[in-house]
Amino acid sequence: MTGFKRIVVGTDGSDTAAEAVRQAAELAKMSGAELEVVCAAEPIPSWRADARRQGAPDDVSYELGPREEANFALEAAARIAAEAGVNMRPHPMEGDPADAILDVAEETGAELIVVGNKGMSGAKRYLLGSVPNKVSHHATCNVFIARTT
């Protein structure tokens, strides 16, 4: 397999997202591509972030905030990429995850986006949509929907 120089994958830190990252890392390894890992979440109100910090020891309270989960998810993705022997660049972002993935793919000139299939079945997809559905309908490059569930 050749032709991919840049692959974008999204993660939210879940087990299913980790599987999508693993599959994206393997594709990157096979094609010699760089791996761009996106973790995006809707911003949380400052009062909620302050409440999360309450009672935390001073030496860790600075780490507790709106991006803590994104940082943990990106660290886990970095370990997966390192195990596969591929270069990975993290993209912590705020906002809609599908939009963030599409934005990073466009900004980096990616030839492939990898997303997991979570959220593609059941009634929820009709009411709220899903990241893989939105990405597959709006991407300007190839999309690989990894079976993760």
- Estimate the global geometry from the Cα principal axes: globular
H-E order? EHEHHHEHEHHE
Indicate the CATH architecture: 3-Layer(aba) Sandwich
- In which range does the helix fraction lie? 40-55%
Number of domains: 1
Arithmetic mean of pLDDT: 84
**What class do helices, strands and sheet pairing give?**
alpha/beta
Looking across the biggest beta sheet, what order are the strands in? 3-2-1-4-5
Report the β-strand fraction as a percent range: 15-25%
Q: Given this structure, which CATH class is correct?
A: Alpha Beta
Tally of individual helices: 7
Description:
- This protein has 149 residues and is α/β, with parallel strands linked by helices.
- It has one domain (6-146): HUPs (Rossmann fold, 3-Layer(aba) Sandwich).
- The chain has helices at residues 15-31, 46-53, 58-61, 68-84, 97-108, 124-128, 131-138, and strands at residues 6-10, 34-41, 88-94, 112-116, 142-146.
- A 5-stranded parallel sheet has the order 3-2-1-4-5, sandwiched between helices.
- α1 (15-31) links the parallel β1 and β2.
- α1 packs parallel to α4 and α5 (97-108) runs parallel beside α7.
- It starts with 5 loop residues before the first strand and ends with a strand.
- The mean pLDDT is 84.
